[in-house]
Amino acid sequence: MTTLAYCQELDVNDALRPLKDQFSLPPGVIYLDGNSLGVLPKATAARVAEVVTQEWGVGLIRSWNTAGWFAMPQKIGNKIAKLIGANAGEVVATDTTSINLYKVLSAALNIAAADSPTRKLIVSERSNFPTDLYIAEALCQERGYTLKLVESDDKSDEIAASLTADVAILMLTHVNYRTGAMHDMAAVTQAAHTAGILTVWDLAHSAGAVHVDLTASKADFSIGCGYKYLNGGPGAPAFVWVNPKHAGRFWQPLAGWWGHATPFDFTPDYRPAPGVNRYLCGTQPIINMAALDCGLEVYMAAEPFGGMAALRVKSLALTDLFIALVEERCAGFGIGLATPRAHAHRGSQVCLTREHGAGLEGGSGAFAIVQALIARGVIGDYRAGDGKTHKDIMRFGFTPLYIGFENVWHAVEHLRQVLVSEEWKRPEFNQKHAVT
Amino acid sequence: MTTLAYCQELDVNDALRPLKDQFSLPPGVIYLDGNSLGVLPKATAARVAEVVTQEWGVGLIRSWNTAGWFAMPQKIGNKIAKLIGANAGEVVATDTTSINLYKVLSAALNIAAADSPTRKLIVSERSNFPTDLYIAEALCQERGYTLKLVESDDKSDEIAASLTADVAILMLTHVNYRTGAMHDMAAVTQAAHTAGILTVWDLAHSAGAVHVDLTASKADFSIGCGYKYLNGGPGAPAFVWVNPKHAGRFWQPLAGWWGHATPFDFTPDYRPAPGVNRYLCGTQPIINMAALDCGLEVYMAAEPFGGMAALRVKSLALTDLFIALVEERCAGFGIGLATPRAHAHRGSQVCLTREHGAGLEGGSGAFAIVQALIARGVIGDYRAGDGKTHKDIMRFGFTPLYIGFENVWHAVEHLRQVLVSEEWKRPEFNQKHAVT
Q1: Contacts of residue A434 in chain B, CB cutoff 8 Å?
Q2: DSSP for B172-188?
Q3: Which residue, of A85, A325, B406, B414, is most buried by count of CB atoms within 10 Å of its CB?
Q4: Which domain holds residue A425?
Q5: Ranges of H-type helices in B330-365
Q6: Any idea which residues of A carry the catalytic annotation?
Q7: A378 and A289 fall within a common domain
Q8: Is B31 inside a domain boundary?
Q9: Does B389 touch chain A (CB under 8 A)?
Q10: Catalytically annotated residue among B103, B148, B228, B376
Q11: Could you report the predicted ipTM of this complex, rounded to two decimals?
């Protein structure tokens, strides 16, 4: 059996442990929801205060130049680039994930329309994060394309079979938000390209969480999120990457002045900036942008400790430990594993199900168990199933920057106690409200 | 002659003067650029710090519900509604002006395509803020429409003549960013409607600056900016209003999960939220959003002082005084007025030109004069002309919340000294850099 002492020993031997000191973690909380909203870095509050009181308050309009506000999308983009296998100048931080997806999908459709006009399908997974599907649905309606949704899980993978001659774009999220299952980006991209299909990758649950190499994978377009593993704060700007071979070919329809080649000439006609800068649109939220910069600085500080490669090793050790402890200590309560065991197919989260019919009454109980854990300070989240293909999910994200092995032990011990005591059946844990 | 003592007397008698104490103005600065980036309200720094350290740092993911983050677009939208003649529930604060324009213009095109499919033109002014034209150009290209640009200034107004049977949408900025000239929203909208044309109004230089009544004007769609007169801080979220008669008819293509009727059902298919909420898309920058809320609170605090009506009276008194002082004290230096004298046609800014051929060598000098003024702490901004129709502009915004009459006197005195001493000819004031 895995012991608390063993977990403590793992922490003692963890070279990445000092990185935890860069974060402001509330006492009494084991935070396993960095996949939804990352933790506050200690440096952020002072930096945000500086932006507000000095750069805005004193510098006022001058700070667009003197404080470098204009250059933030590119400066921050260059830091993100290091985490996703992109080169400097290929990434900009801007707008939201949904909006950036609209931009790259629009550009990809422009390329497809020019190069292979008979291809009229966009393929994605039914289990993709819904906003990706909504945006694709909207663009399909605008452009006369059809969104084809396929199943992809441990039971069936219809993606390979879906790469037919009528498909223009394969749009996937690299790490699934519900299950934590991860695609092989290089292999899937190669299969798509062999079939003449462009790829769009959503890195919302990948950037800062797993090894990503957009360049080596030869991906075509990519977007991702700033407020999850990148610790950029609530609603942090998202990011966009375009393969340099595509970047100059078309402009995207959210063609605002920040994406103009010379915005301060104020010309009435649009002339797109070179490269990825044309994926900018309007004025960016500078305070949130500065907070995102602080989140990325933690990753820069992790470079002497081995950077993303070392973080990935620790992430897998944390999720391995969590799975092992749940199976050792929470057996007999109908808890199942929705996340792949194979390292190559696992992101930085572990998703548990709770089976009906395991001697238990009244729904899966997954929602109430998560609420009971939150009340104990173990913060994960819940994603409802569809009553058919997808089970209710208890989702636990493991951010190696600030989660330790003893945290994992205690999280599972709380889960065990919630199950043994049946405290999750209390009425207060069974009242639904909006969740993120 | 208008004296300093007279200006000081105006301040003494100004009932709105206490509102200035709500702002953190740097010493030695007369800030006449609130039309580009508003001033920091005193309450903002503490509120932003609370969002960062408490709501994010301690509340973490729970704050989406417990701190009301989810409801911010609507809550802030309701405050903006009071300033623009809209009703509660009709406005959301979200994304950027450019992106919101894309949304409403898309929706307006959907309506036009359904109701009057033979109309294939969008009409706007050549002197409109360029990002509006770029977004319209992009949508025209996507949808098979043509953007027709007309002239509209003190010499010729081609708008009325442009409202022909082939026009689907008239897209105007209410107060021109270069000249401060203001359209009669009700009259123009009525003329457009009589001709079967929908109207889209950009309120970037109107909201919080002049009287706006979208409801009484029967406007169709409107958008606006949070970081100018609303004092929301650099890159504050913008806003969007849709006439309730249109709000439920179509969805807009930036159809992300925040605009879904039930986002946390995570359904694979998009079902738009009722009303204006479908104009939301992705996760919003919460820190900047909280700062915008503080900016609007100042307007709520201005209600006992007479609110927007009283602010408008003071704004006109300030711009009247500025014009009078410039004409009295800066005569003989080729300074011209680009802003209409008639109150009904003037926003909250005054734009000056500097004529070539007024006995002066080397370009208009407008850029260098603005730089020299900024060096003296009088912050306005410069907008280049096109060498043809549009002259170089020296732009001075007057925000009645924090600008007083003595400020106006001193601003003009600095301008007089810059002109008399010819200090604007110094090399350091003639080096171009990016301006906002």
Answers
A1: 64-65, 70, 264
A2: EESB-TTT-BB--HHHH
A3: A325
A4: 4-40+306-429
A5: none
A6: 129, 202, 227-228, 395
A7: no
A8: yes
A9: no
A10: B228
A11: 0.96
